[in-house]
Amino acid sequence: MAIFEGSGVALVTPMNEDGKVNFDKLKALVEWHIEKGSNAIIACGTTGEASTLDDEEHIAVIEAVVKQAAGRIPVIGGTGSNNTQHGIHLSKEAERVGADALLVVTPYYNKATKKSLITHYQAICGAVSLPVILYSVASRTGMNLTPDTVAELKKIPNVKGIKEASGDISQIVEIARLVDEDFALYSGNDDQVLPILSVGGSGVISTIGNIAPQETATLVRSFFAGDLKTARNIQLAQKPLIDVIFSEVNPVPIKAAVSLLGKCDMTYRLPLDKPEESTLAALRREMTAYSLL
Predict the structure, then answer these.
(1) Active site residues
(2) How far apart are CA 220 and CA 39, in angstroms?
(3) Which of 60, 75, 82, 133 could be bridged to 161 by S-S, CB 3.0 to 4.6 A?
(4) What is the pLDDT of residues 51-95, one digit of tens each?
């Protein structure tokens, strides 16, 4: 069965001006998302700037989210790596600190063959007992999880779903055709939630959910309740804001947007940095239009 149904927020990682993780604001964000109806939290994904956290910080963030959530909603730890042994280490540590599931991105930069890609996932999944969500985002990793590869990977006992962020609807439909109802298909793109739900998706691992958690959860809940009009209206209403959120590389605009809500500082770690002034202006405009400011 799906690890969660609905909207899982790919949580930003708040940082102080000195660049250190702000655990107080991190815990406050977790509490706010639970209050607003998010159905799961993904800690240390792309949006959480996992690539610039060292291993100790990475696991400390996951542990802090787990403790704050206190079993009220699932916590999914991002533990993918282009180094299989590193991925195994992060996955074991995430399991140790209480994560409910893992999100494992394809190994970036190395460009593995299909055979070695499958072996990579077998090694990581075999090292833990937690359910695993595959993560396909070729625009960032250079590695696409093709439908036939997903069909092979779902044979691994604890592979329970995929975050599909290829943007290729035809590919996503083919994946949906090849998997069964025990395999969760999550939209990895906020502007494709409704299309993916329509072919059997279980929900979304969301970026816009960082600033509109209630609305994003309502979108999915409305679809499952048969209220397609409400689901469609939310999807379309969010589109201008989604476009701005992804006008620069994620998570630069979304962290700025969370900052505009007063919930974190606009602090990043290089090579990420504050967005352009034109992006900030567009965020303020669209967040105001969406009644967030």
Answers:
(1) 135, 163
(2) 10
(3) 133
(4) 999 999 999 999 999 999 999 999 999 999 999 999 999 999 999
